[in-house]
Amino acid sequence: MAGPFEKLKQSLARTRVGLLGKISQVITRRKIDDDLLDDIEEILIEADVGVAATTRLIDFLREQASQEKLTDVNDIFGLLKEEITEILSRGDAPIFSEDDKTPVVWLIVGVNGVGKTTTIGKLATNFSARGKMVIIAACDTFRAAAIDQVAIWAERSNVEIVKSQTGSDPAAVAYDAAKASLARGADLLLVDTAGRLHTKSNLMEELKKIKRVIGKALPDAPIYSKLIIDGSTGQNAISQVKVFTEAVGCDGIIVTKLDGTAKGGIIIGVAEELGVPVDFVGLGEGIDDLQRFDAGEFTEALFE
Amino acid sequence: MFGQLSDRLEQAFKKLRGKGVLTEKNIRDSMREVRQALLEADVNYKVAKRFVAAVQEKAIGVEVLKSIDPGQQVVKVVHDELVELLGSKAEPLIPPDKSPTIYMVCGLQGSGKTTLVGKLALQNKRKNKKPLVVAADIYRPAAVKQLKVLADSIEVEHFYLDDKKPPEICAEAVKHAQKNFFDLVIFDTAGRLHIDDELMVELEDIKQKVQPHEILLVADAMTGQDAVNVSKEFHERLGLTGVVLSKLDGDARGGAALSIREVTGCPIKLASIGEKLSDLEAFHPDRMASRILGMGDIVSLVEKAEETVDLEKAARMQEKLLKAKFDFEDFLEQMGQLKKMGPLESLVGMIPGVGKALKNIQLDERQMERMVAIIKSMTIEERRNPNIIDGSRKKRIARGSGNSVQSVNQLLKQFFAMQKMFGNIGKMKLKGLPAGMNPFKL
Fold this sequence. Notes:
The structure holds two protein chains of two kinds. Chain A has eleven helices and eight strands. Chain A is elongated, with a radius of gyration of 21 Å. In chain A, strands 3-2-4-1-5-6-7-8 form an eight-stranded mixed beta sheet, with helices on both faces. Chain A is an alpha/beta fold. In chain A, helix 4 (73-89) crosses helix 10 (266-274) and helix 9 (236-248) packs across helix 10 (266-274). Chain A folds into two domains: 4-89, Up-down Bundle (Four Helix Bundle (Hemerythrin (Met), subunit A)), CATH 1.20.120.140; 104-293, Rossmann fold. In chain B, helix 5 (70-86) crosses helix 12 and helix 15 (328-341) runs antiparallel to helix 18 (365-376). Chain B has an eight-stranded mixed beta sheet, sandwiched between helices. Chains A and B meet through helix 2, helix 6 and helix 9 of A and helix 2, helix 7 and helix 10 of B.
């Protein structure tokens, strides 16, 4: 069987051809000068790394180049890779802690259309395949047919689901699901929430309430908020991370849709500015297309 | 929506404003700010570069040096250039007057296609047209049902065939529509990556089979640099007739709009704002450019107000706002009107200059209630002349409304800030902006 990162490498091949192809082109035939740094800047910006993070990276490269009297452009490239890996590793944390009491709750949140429900389907399948007892709480009671969608995923992955009617109170569903997961001795409760723009304060309040209510039903359970970010999102991701963190905290990010041409460079910007760890990356619509994120591997795949 | 970009440009031009003469150097400096702002707004790197080069060329030269207020002149050049890039005028969808007219809605996963289909159906139903919505997403779990539920909720007919591929479903749907006198057929296609050849071929098949009148790409306003690749690929393969920007009600700066427009040359025809099926607006490049420049979108605001607010009152209010003569009584009335107009965030974003002046003021509904309570605890005299509110009056008002003195102070501070801000807009108007950018020209 192919290694766990084969798929990631394949998917990122496009990114790599773009990013690394350009970097290599830039690097193999050049001296270290402002033009070179300008080209690197363009490559990073076009990968959605963002102005602030790019500027810091470029400044860092410029400083190192003059300090260490670097003349080989390959050294510059190596430095860039190291630095990005370092930034991406800052928030690296284990997904499960040994001391966690079960059930562990994952509150899956994010703006509209990022792939929350699909991600839940994949998570449920993966954890259930590893012998964990998973329960899904269908708390997107707003969007038409969202409950049916997550119910289909529950059936496919053979896990239990707690649901109610469209239009019902999502916090009430969360409460029932929390109680159910306790009663049935579940290991993991995956809470699917409705997509909401982080600028809508009433919807963010609703999210806080869902978390509060779960906390009441399961006073000892660790509740982790996992923010789903669409891999093609630009600089707005920073704002999303900030506001969702303020509302319900953010214990990990899952970046979806990285199988397209979007570079997902915003992860670097987010990690640099906010230090939130990336837990998983989504690489397609298949049930196995969700992979554990590893900063080193990710950067390698990106720059190989 | 373009709030932060406006702030950046405002800052860039502040630097220009103080200078008596415009030199090449200080234009270049402010253009650097413009470029940075565009990049932070997710405008594609190359698009931003071209834009800045074009503006710079126009700004350095006769037209600027001749002008009395060089800063404003540059604002105008940037504004005009932005309008040009966004498309110079609003372009509506082809109206459903054939039998039937066909719209095909496509885009990446999660961009907001199904919601848009619902909105288009509702909008046309309200115009007494007979729309048919077609479920051509046979892949995502419950996608067919999602469209069905939406269609049922607005009492529009829904078309779907089990065991058929999307191109056949669409072809059959058109036949069904012809037989049953539908005016409009809307295809809700599956979300797909632009590099997914198999699924892109499927769209090409649909296009070939039924020749839709409109092929619309739904693009998420939060998209980053990749907007260029996505829209280019969809356009090359399908020949898009228009773009719909979705999720504009968030705080994304929406630079993708500029990129997509520049790369495809397709008009952005609609703005899909919000999850309610009634939240669909025409996309107005000129207003959007004004908005980008921090001049706000007062035309949309007034239009929205006209739908819900007493016209006479609105006109009176506008006059008062401009003269900075409005007091707490107007404020109170205004809040009542505002409530009728919908979510506050979207309204506030439309007011010129507000981005900056009210940045730190959170306007949520509950806080509004509190504000109303405080104002209602003021005497008529205090409402008309807030300057007389001293320490002991503040205490009384706080007690009367069940708030703290701090809350009263905060409200007063906000009120004075608003008054000042509107005063500035009034002055701006009096000074006479170039005709094309006068935000109050209706």
